C-alpha cells in the first residue's frame, strides 16, 4: 500500500490575503515564536509528517497586510526544541545565499533537531528581492537554475566533507580523525568553496531536499536533485501531467 505524506504549510495568519483582518486572527503574534511552536505541536499530535515554511525577500505593500515576518531558519531552531518527531522544512534561495552558509545553517539545524530538517530550494523571482541582494534586477531564469544546480552540488560536497567516522572524541588529545575530514576544493562557474564544513556530519547527513519550480528547468532540477516537490496544479489532469513529467 502506498503511503501519503501530509505536511502543514504555515503561512502567517493564513493563506488568504485578508486573513489577518479576521477578528480572531493571530496578527499580533507573528513575531512570537510561541505561536508557531503551538502550531507545530498541534501538527505533531495530529501525526503529520512535517511543517513547511516559505520565505521571501521583499515587503510588498505594508498597508495591505503582513507578507513575511520571522526568518524561517531562525524560527525553526525554536520549533526544533519545541517538538520531537515532526519534520521541519525551510526555504532558502540559491540566488541570494551561498553554499557554505546554507550548508552550515542547515547542518546546525539538523543537529539541533536530531535529524528532522528539509531544505526547499528556490531560485526566487522578483526584482524587488534581487535589489535587496546587489542585483539591479532578477538574473536570467536559465542562469538562476544553473547556479541552483551548482549550489546544491557544492552544499552536498560540504555535507560529505566530514565522514561518519570523523569524530574520535578521545579526551587524551584527539577530537577528530583528520583523514576523515577533507577539503572539497569546489571551483565552479558560480562558486569557489574550499571547505571542509566547520560542523561534523549531521544525523541525516543531508537534509531532505524539496524543490519548487514549474518551468522546464525547474522540473529538470527537481527530477535530478529533489526528494519532494512543492507544486501547484489547478485541476487533476494538470497534476497528473506534472507528476508524469518529473517522474
UniProtKB/TrEMBL annotation:
<dbReference type="InterPro" id="IPR051260">
    <property type="entry name" value="Diverse_substr_monoxygenases"/>
</dbReference>
<keyword id="KW-0288">FMN</keyword>
<dbReference type="GO" id="GO:0018529">
    <property type="term" value="F:nitrilotriacetate monooxygenase activity"/>
</dbReference>
<keyword id="KW-0503">Monooxygenase</keyword>
<dbReference type="Pfam" id="PF00296">
    <property type="entry name" value="Bac_luciferase"/>
</dbReference>
<dbReference type="InterPro" id="IPR036661">
    <property type="entry name" value="Luciferase-like_sf"/>
</dbReference>
<dbReference type="InterPro" id="IPR011251">
    <property type="entry name" value="Luciferase-like_dom"/>
</dbReference>
<dbReference type="InterPro" id="IPR016215">
    <property type="entry name" value="NTA_MOA"/>
</dbReference>
<feature type="domain" description="Luciferase-like">
    <location>
        <begin position="19"/>
        <end position="246"/>
    </location>
</feature>
<protein>
    <submittedName>
        <fullName>Nitrilotriacetate monooxygenase component A</fullName>
        <ecNumber>1.14.14.10</ecNumber>
    </submittedName>
</protein>
<comment type="similarity">
    <text>Belongs to the NtaA/SnaA/DszA monooxygenase family.</text>
</comment>
<keyword id="KW-0285">Flavoprotein</keyword>
<keyword id="KW-0560">Oxidoreductase</keyword>
